[in-house]
Amino acid sequence: MTVPETAAEIARAVNERELSAAAIAAEFEARIHLREAAVGAFLTQTGALALAHAERVDARVRAGEELPLAGVPLAIKDNMCLTGTRTTCGSKILENWTAPYTATAVQRLLDAGALPVGKTNLDEFAMGSSCENSALGTTRNPWDRERVPGGSSGGSVAAVAAGEAVLALGSDTGGSIREPAAFCGVVGFKPTYGRVSRYGLIAFASSLDQIGPVARTVQDAARCYDVMAGHDPLDATSLARPVAATHNGLRDDLRGVRIGLVNEFTLSALGADVRATYERAYADLEGLGADLVDVSLPTADYGVATYYLIAPAECSSNLARFDGMRYGLRVPGADVAETYERTRAAGFGDEVKRRILIGTHALSSGYYDAYYVRAQKARTLIAADFATAFQRCDAIAAPAAASEAFRFAAKSDPYSMYLMDYYTIPMSLAGLPALSVPCGFVTPPDGAHPLPLGLQLTTPLFEERTLLGIAHAYERATMHASVRPPIAANETARV
Amino acid sequence: MMASDDIDVAYVAKLARIALSPDETERFGTQLTALLEHVAALEKLAVADVPATAQVVPSENVVRDDVPRPSLERETVLEAAPERQGAYFRVPRIIAEDSIVGEET
Lengths: 495, 105
Known about the structure:
heterodimer, A: alpha/beta, Amidase signature (AS) enzymes, globular, B: mainly alpha, Histone, subunit A, 2 strands, flat
């Protein structure tokens, strides 16, 4: 059996009963079985659950329903709850925790016909840019197994790149969808803050966290977003405003579109091949009819510093709930305080501890104004810079990451890892919708394989329709996304 | 101005309820001091008259209707407990014995 490569084609074939969802579930269970040893995208495989969902999808289609994601294999980042399934956040503190409810975003995709094939690896509690901070598994980049998939949504992007899933959910706090999507050559989309319900997403930094799709194509990302976006009474921060559909706003050219290039995002710090790839991407946008304009984000350079106060502060507060009392790991001590201390010492890895410590420090008496409030004020300036820039353009183009995928253990200094998100953090602080779309390949001097790069596009708040429309025109004209890693290259021939 | 003191990792770890080994205290101290030197760049921004932003998307506080609705089953929740006793979570004692007034011994 040949399963089409995109969600759009799969849903069409299942809705027209050319393919059964049950056959697709079986095919992907077999595919994951064959490829997982090389990739390691999943912490938990849920093939039996996918098959049960597939049978319900087939019954609904037979009864005359048409489902936008009928039979589409879906991987779910393991910081999102799925009833009855282990949900770990890649942490020892939740290693054996079974979710008693399902995240709203996940539920909406399942109701639309998606098949949950598994829960994917991530940097512990989504804190990291390489997936190396997972306490529970190693995920390898499908393009080069000696390299990281990016993070924190590393398992989700690797699963889609390797053809182990057709869609995946990631979460993005400072770049955790966009940077790994760039590293693995897939589309990764972070909607406006509040567009997608965070109910059932285990919180990291609540003013920044946002769920978004990972897909092979912009069209599939749009289809997934359209299903899950919109107000949810279970998340007080989810936006009540109406959501403009994106799947029918995809463009084929960029005539009349003004695209801003950020003066401060100089490409000179990048490797020569990486720089040339981005210069070609900008030229391709112009070739599609876009007007390229220079814009300035004078405070964007302060993004990383601002982020590494705000995100840890919120993290230290959110992760206070992991105390070993009602769920998760408990390591007993002589009294309750020692039980907390031992539980959290054994349950959290180094990066999570570092962020809790820096966040606790930034919020502590005597430091609160100097660190946390100052960072919140810097955030105001960063958001204002974007608002000014968007008076001159409809979208901004930039790199999605500071390099191609790097080797395991290459970033042992925490701050060098933080700098990987230099280009994605400002958009997160401003709450903007942003995505990464494949924009070409480089073969690094120390590597044997071509590695993908991602072009980041961002638009004003709530302008997801414009954003996906522009990204689609670029993707369609350049075709970078159609190149598959070797592990997935022959799947259309597989019977 | 931003505080320039080195972070007191042992004190902060106590506040955060995380036991650290001497090795961790030293290592995190070095790493977090380096991070604080990087974030000190924010001192260069003029922010005196800038309002703080807690959340960037316009929104206002919401309350839900006060209507009863189903919650998780008690048994489902208790199944996740590290320790339970019947219908209760079993947790360490939080009040010292000699401070309990009137308790029979």
